[in-house]
Amino acid sequence: MIGKVILSGIAAGLTIYCITQIDNPTLQMAGSIVGASTFGFTVTRLVLEERRSRKARAAEARAYVLMIRRMNQERLRRHPPIPQACRGCRHYHGRSYHGNFLICGMHPYGVETETCGDWEG
């Protein structure tokens, strides 16, 4: 792809160089139109290729971020964070059994308040 664009640029440059060597004004006009058109094509092609490439990289980045988010959500489902009321408690169990997360023996699903009456350091 980039080789074709480079070849177009070289062809445009050669065309413009050649028309400067001709004495016929009609041929100079036609040559300058062809050379300018080829340069325009080359620049447009480069810009479009860069835009496609940027869009592809952005799509890959979005897919990567989505994959990381899913992995983190799965990890959090398996190992949820320690509840604030349970931090440092010797009764905290924090393991999952067949998809059921057990906080501790006294409060299997955790306490509903910010403190726990059974907390022991």
Structure description:
It is a single chain. The two termini are 67 Å apart. This protein folds into two domains: 2-78; 79-121, no CATH class. The protein has a two-stranded antiparallel ribbon with strand order 1-2. Helices cover 60% and strands 5% of the residues. With 121 residues, it is mainly α. The longest helix has 54 residues, at 25-78. A hairpin with a 2-residue loop joins strand 1 (95-97) and strand 2 (100-102). The mean pLDDT is 82.
List keywords for this structure.
121 residues, 2 helices, single chain, 60% helix, mainly alpha
User: Whole-Å distance between the termini?
Assistant: 67 Å
User: How many DSSP E strands?
Assistant: 2
Shape: rod-shaped
Q: Determine the mean pLDDT.
A: 82
Strand content: under 5%
Structural class: mainly alpha
Helix content: 55-70%
Strand order of the largest sheet: 1-2
SSE order in H/E notation?
Answer: HHEE
Q: How many separate structural domains?
A: 2
What Rg, in angstroms, do the CA atoms define?
34 Å
Q: Describe the biggest sheet?
A: 2 strands, antiparallel
Poorly predicted regions are none
Total helical elements: 2
Summarize the structure.
With 121 residues, the protein is mainly alpha-helical.
